[in-house]
């Protein structure tokens, strides 16, 4: 069986799938996280599930692990229908999960973590000695070496992950789900992990790898399923697909957005970024030497699959890089050097320098959800002189501004006293965009301006962005929506793995070419980017095609 | 200070530390499971009242003890309901319990016994008697060890011995059993327990209930062992002192023994020497009586080393993906 599994992950004839999901749906309130998901994972294969943040991958896996109950649909394990009511059931069904954020007890030893919840009796001693033996065995079999008596907080992240895998194997998991396993690993650790996974596959284990990294999918999986906006949009054999096709499937091709705009008339550079580097507190290089200019009267679009450093770039420019990050390079705004560290590098100083920021996650960084809309309108600008009324704040003035913004941006319902959370996503975004644009910044940073925003609001927001440009301001647009980038940008830069892979003019490029750059492929000569991907490959393919 | 005096002070310290030790262990179970418990004081007070009342009515300290455990457990369950089931703020719930106990005991006391909030004094059979260990009298004349055995170790009520036995028992439960492993895990990282398929809610409730039982023992000892009946606010901050001892002991059972002994000793010294004459100056009794509380403040202010509480302490567990 192991030999068969190695040959491209073909299932044994008549063998049922290790996992089969039929029309699984799950919504949280009005948000449909998973819609009619079908998935078949042949036994003894590595199956990649790829999709952007928020595509519904983690929800789907949480359903498999008994954290959520699906609203509809059926789960079959080894051909047997099963109801997974809780994690205990999932464990008993042979499912093991390695979460993105490890579920380990920091001050316990490896052994204690391994047996927790899987003890053999009321007393610990027999369980501990049994686990010690099993661990020794597993270590030999799968190169999973960890000192059983070390406490977790003394282990490196890579070793902690091994403990999580060992935990699953100790519970005799046949199906191992790994959620974004390489996010916290160094490249060497990631390579080691992949060797472990290969070893597990050779032993007949089934592995589901959730990631948004195309390279990992191409390197290690047998099959890959693509999720977008809660739906499974494709399931293909990895050997029969390409990174660019997957990139496009992930990002999706929407109705072409039409934004009417005159050609740009760029003037002097407003923002000059040189060799910007950022290493986060876990030692991962998030930005590896970013450089670009934005001129007044120009929109620079940054395309890329999410998680390639765009967030870090926006946060750094906006004045709030992740805690513990090490930053180097230079940012010049209107010819003046901006501080990268210290008290003059904060968000307030950036705003004083004329940088407006519509953050990617409006609900966390853009708004305080439980505060009234009119209060949210003042945030970031609350210390402006016009809002000071002597000892107290001039709330009347803020409310008047809020009324005006609501009118100008057509925010509905037209009630500035409602808490921010009571507005729809589109209207929440309008509040944030209004706040930043009405301040007339020299440079507007805008991340995912239309994520979770309805069509009407999208057009409106796009129009306002173009108007700002026509008023001679600079705009940095970061979006994972390729169509949005293509429709709005005057120039496009593609980010991959913390670098800018290249700059293109929207009129002179194609989604195919951009897709390649997004997948980290710079050599475009071998892949004529004439018309991108043939349309028929975009259709959902059932998997696998072999007779059963 | 001669030898018999030392023995007497130590003997008194052992009596005085007993309620502290029991309450401290109660807090240890609760907080190790991730539920902060500043309601130790209230639970002890309630247990003191119920045990004294029942002991008076029935004349049996044992039934009193049961009633004490029941009274404290009732408050424990309220705390569990508020902070585990409904994910409320554990500190606020604890404060509420303290107020509730402080008011309820007096109110019920006045209503039932009409003695201004006290219960009638327990006589003879209503209290736990002192147990004389075998050979205490015959061994008394052995030098050094004799008096230690006869006067210090022997001659306490059953609850004192129970309290001291609880220390190794708690250690064993915590570090040698499945329940202990899970209890410690749930206080450090409840998600690890949850993903292992074990109920966080159930574990925490068990811990809180154990805390109730131990507070019940502590309260019953106060009312039916150490004194003879319930007096308004008779716990006198012992619940908070026990909390300080718990932090001092870094949530470890054996250290808890040492920490509570220190507090008991301070109280014993203050009782023995109301005005401590040091030759040069005489320390006034007010200061001596305040000593345990001063030490509490010092410990809670973090002057005694770094105490790392259970990592998930105080946080209601909300399942996330």
From TrEMBL, chain A:
Major subcellular location class: membrane
Region (Disordered): 523-548
Gene Ontology molecular function: ATP binding; ATP hydrolysis activity
Domain ABC transporter: start-end pairs: 19-254, 271-522
Location relative to the cell: Cell membrane
UniProt xrefs under SMART domains: AAA
Basic and acidic residues compositional bias, start-end: 538-548
Keywords: ATP-binding, Cell membrane, Membrane, Nucleotide-binding, Repeat, Sugar transport, Translocase, Transport
Record-linked InterPro entries: AAA+_ATPase, ABC_carbohydrate_import_ATPase, ABC_transporter-like_ATP-bd, ABC_transporter-like_CS, P-loop_NTPase
Topology in the lipid bilayer: Peripheral membrane protein
One cellular component (GO) term of this entry: plasma membrane
Gene3D superfamilies assigned to the protein according to its UniProt record, in alphabetical order: P-loop containing nucleotide triphosphate hydrolases
Protein family: Belongs to the ABC transporter superfamily.
Name this protein carries in UniProt: Nucleoside ABC transporter ATP-binding protein
Organism the protein comes from: Paracoccus homiensis
Automatic annotation (TrEMBL), chain B:
A GO MF label: transmembrane transporter activity
Family annotation (Pfam families): BPD_transp_2
GO CC annotations on file: plasma membrane
Transmembrane residue ranges: 6-28, 40-57, 91-113, 153-174, 205-228, 240-266, 278-304
Record keywords: Cell membrane, Membrane, Transmembrane, Transmembrane helix
Superkingdom of origin organism: Bacteria
Record bears the keyword Nucleotide-binding: no
Membrane-topology descriptor: Multi-pass membrane protein
Subcellular localization, as worded in the UniProt entry: Cell membrane
Keyword Kinase on entry: no
Main location: membrane
InterPro entries: ABC_transp_permease
Protein name: Nucleoside ABC transporter membrane protein
Organism expressing this protein natively: Paracoccus homiensis
């Amino acid at each position: 069986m192991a030999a068969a599994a190695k040959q491209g992950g073909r299932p044994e004839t008549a063998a049922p799938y290790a996992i089969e999901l039929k029309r699984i749906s799950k919504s949280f309130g009005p948000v449909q996280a998973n819609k009619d998901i079908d998935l078949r994972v042949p036994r003894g294969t590595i199956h990649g599930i790829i999709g952007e943040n928020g595509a519904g991958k983690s929800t789907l896996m949480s359903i498999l692990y008994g954290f959520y109950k699906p609203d509809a649909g059926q789960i079959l394990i080894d051909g047997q229908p099963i109801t997974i009511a809780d994690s205990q059931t999932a464990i008993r069904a042979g499912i093991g999960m390695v979460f993105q954020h490890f579920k380990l007890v920091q001050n316990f030893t490896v052994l204690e973590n391994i047996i927790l919840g899987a003890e053999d009796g009321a007393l610990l001693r027999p369980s501990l000695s049994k686990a010690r033996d099993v661990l020794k065995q597993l270590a030999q079999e799968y190169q999973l070496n960890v000192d059983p008596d070390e406490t977790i907080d003394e282990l490196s992240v890579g070793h902690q992950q091994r403990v999580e895998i060992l935990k699953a194997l100790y519970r005799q998991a046949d199906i191992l789900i790994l959620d974004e396993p390489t996010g916290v690993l160094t490249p060497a650790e990631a390579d080691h992990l992949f060797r472990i996974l290969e070893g597990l596959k050779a032993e007949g284990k089934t592995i589901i790898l959730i990631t948004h990294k195309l390279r990992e999918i191409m390197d290690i999986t047998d099959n890959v399923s693509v999720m977008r906006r809660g739906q499974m949009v494709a399931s293909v054999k990895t050997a029969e697909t390409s990174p660019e096709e997957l990139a496009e499937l992930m990002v999706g091709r929407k109705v072409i957005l039409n934004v009417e705009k005159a050609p740009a008339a760029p003037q002097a550079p407003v923002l000059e970024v040189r060799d910007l580097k950022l290493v986060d507190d876990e030692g991962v290089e998030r930005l590896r030497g970013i450089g670009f200019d934005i001129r007044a009267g120009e929109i620079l679009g940054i395309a890329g699959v999410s998680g390639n450093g765009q967030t870090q770039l926006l946060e750094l420019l906006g004045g709030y890089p992740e805690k513990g990050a090490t930053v180097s390079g230079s940012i010049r705004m209107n010819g003046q050097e901006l501080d990268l560290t210290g008290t003059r590098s904060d968000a307030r100083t950036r705003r004083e320098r004329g940088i407006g920021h519509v953050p990617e996650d409006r609900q966390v960084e853009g708004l305080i959800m439980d505060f009234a809309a009119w209060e949210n309108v003042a945030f970031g600008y609350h210390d402006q002189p016009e809002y000071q009324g002597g000892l107290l704040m001039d709330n009347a003035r803020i409310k008047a501004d809020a009324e005006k913004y609501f009118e100008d941006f057509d925010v509905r319902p037209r009630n500035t006293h409602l808490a921010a959370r009571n507005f729809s996503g589109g209207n929440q975004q309008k509040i944030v965009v209004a706040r930043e644009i009405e301040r007339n910044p020299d440079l507007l940073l805008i991340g995912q301006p239309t994520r979770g925003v309805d069509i009407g609001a999208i057009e409106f927001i796009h129009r306002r962005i173009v108007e700002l440009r026509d008023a001679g301001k600079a705009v940095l647009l970061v979006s994972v929506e390729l169509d949005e980038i293509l429709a709005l940008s005057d120039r496009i830069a593609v980010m991959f793995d913390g670098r800018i892979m290249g700059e293109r003019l929207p009129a002179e490029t194609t989604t195919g070419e951009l897709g390649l750059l997004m997948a980290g492929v710079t050599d475009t000569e071998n892949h004529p980017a004439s018309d991108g991907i043939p349309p028929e490959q975009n259709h959902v393919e059932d998997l696998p095609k072999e007779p059963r | 200070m001669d030898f018999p005096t030392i023995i007497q002070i130590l003997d008194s310290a052992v009596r005085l530390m007993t309620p502290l030790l029991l309450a401290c262990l109660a807090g240890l179970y609760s907080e190790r499971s991730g539920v902060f418990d500043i309601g130790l004081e209230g639970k002890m007070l309630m247990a003191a009242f119920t045990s004294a009342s029942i002991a008076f009515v029935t004349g049996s300290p044992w039934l009193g003890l049961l009633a004490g455990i029941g009274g404290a457990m009732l408050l424990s369950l309220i705390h569990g309901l508020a902070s585990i089931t409904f994910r409320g703020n554990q500190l606020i719930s604890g404060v509420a319990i303290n107020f509730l106990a402080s008011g309820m005991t007096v109110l019920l006391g006045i209503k039932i016994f009409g003695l201004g909030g006290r219960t009638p004094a327990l006589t003879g059979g209503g209290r736990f008697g002192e147990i004389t260990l075998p050979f205490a009298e015959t061994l008394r004349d052995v030098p050094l060890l004799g008096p230690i055995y006869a006067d210090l170790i022997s001659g306490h009520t059953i609850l004192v011995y129970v309290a001291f036995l609880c220390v190794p028992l708690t250690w064993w439960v915590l570090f040698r059993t499945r329940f202990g492993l899970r209890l410690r895990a749930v206080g450090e990282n409840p998600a690890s327990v949850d993903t292992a398929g074990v109920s966080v809610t159930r574990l925490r409730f068990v811990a809180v209930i154990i805390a109730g039982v131990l507070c019940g023992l502590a309260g019953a000892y106060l009312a039916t062992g150490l004194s003879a009946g319930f007096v308004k606010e008779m716990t006198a901050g012992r619940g908070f002192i026990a909390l300080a001892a718990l932090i001092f002991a870094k949530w470890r059972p054996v250290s808890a023994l040492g920490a509570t002994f220190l507090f008991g000793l301070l109280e014993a010294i203050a009782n023995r020497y109301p005005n401590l004459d040091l030759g040069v100056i005489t320390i006034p009794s007010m200061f001596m009586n305040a000593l345990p509380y001063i030490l509490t403040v010092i410990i809670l202010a973090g002057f005694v080393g770094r105490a790392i509480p259970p990592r998930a302490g105080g946080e209601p567990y909300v399942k996330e993906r």
